[in-house]
Amino acid sequence: MDKIVVQGGNVLSGEVPVSGAKNAALPIIAASLLSRGHHILRNVPELADVATMLEVLRVMGAKAERLTGNKKSTCEVLIDGPVHPEAPYELVKTMRASVLVLGPLVARYGRARVSMPGGCAIGARPIDQHLKGLKAMGAEITLTEGYVEARCKRLRGATVNFDVITVTGTENVMMAAVLARGRTVLENAAREPEVEELANVLNKMGARIEGAGSDVITIDGVDELRPMDHAIIPDRVEAGTFLVAAAITGGNVLVKNAVPEHLEAVLLKLREAGCTLTTEAGGIRCKGPRVLKPVDIKTAEHPGFPTDMQAQLMVLMSVANGTSVISENIFENRFMHVPELHRMGADISISGPTAVVKGVKKLSGAQVMATDLRASASLVLAGLRAEGRTEVSRVYHLDRGYEHIEKKLRGVGANVRRVKG
Ligand code: EPZ
Questions:
Q1: What's the CA angle centered on 97, arms 93 and 101, to 5 degrees?
Q2: How much is the pLDDT for 20?
């Protein structure tokens, strides 16, 4: 297994590009199932999770390929001929977002058989709300041998009031609704930029969706859609991670393509911590302060502070001048980076969903282990600041969500390299 080795202490400066958003690319790839024809997806990040989603489509009988050479950020999906509407356990267990094919398959093929995504490191992550929405639209749902089987000749519009705000639940039911008969109203819907981006793509394909980005989304079903040609929005979590890299090294970095509107809660907290953030033509510039101020964080659904940035802010606060309180309100087990940060000298105590972070003068390099995607990014950030050498193992977690992170960080002066394991 590969490792990332970081020699801490360098002050980052220069420009770093942000790739396409993983959490927009995954539902958009699934959305290609909604229309026959030749789909073109641009600015698609080269990530393990994206490769898995393309493989899920190929297993179903679609042609789903990433182009090569200077077009390698473009993927093409060809949907024509029969599609076998089944997502196998072997693939779903490696990437739970495969469940996003459920809505499109039932909507267009009248049936789907998708392995139940088990829990993952950060939590149980049930899909009861996904199924609640499909049932409300007339799907017959059965759970057999660890698979969800959904059937419905033609879904009909319904009002779905989500009991919890769920990003992929909103996306799955929205995709099911675009080909249903009549109007569907999603209430208590997720407001993430990736949900809005998916609605934009579906509308380009001929869907009739209004209200995406708010908590009430209205979808008027149509009989068929046309293929997409779309460039995916930049990844706000990757952008936020690089802003923290600038902040934690006291550097000055322009994060190119970052969209301020997608990161407002994060920008506010970085400013509160003493960073100077300016919006420039090409993105967002972050200048880290000599001394970081402590800030309290409460993760929440968008537009609140994103849970996917919690670990990164915790690392920043671990070297702030004072005490910060961080509450993780979205997932039940998203503090797995804490024991690893302890090994580097961080002073963090956990009580249930709350972590009290007492800033320390310095972190020391150590051998640490990645446990989940964003935790692994936070360990690399800690290594940038720590004195000495930090080795992050199990970086396959990192490769799920960050495209060539060590290359991008080297591009702004970090001493970081990947060691093939
Ligand atoms: C999406 O996961 C993202 N993944 C996650 O990003 C992100 O952390 C999460 O949203 C929250 O923002 C993708 O978009 C592919 P949820 P998702 O359904 O949709 C509970 C990353 O790092 N819930 O919004 O699976 C659930 O247990 C990943 O890129 C139910 O109870 O998250 C959680 O506590 C990690 N029943 C809360 O809702 C359901 O049916 C939010 O989950 C669905 C969810």
A1: 105
A2: 98
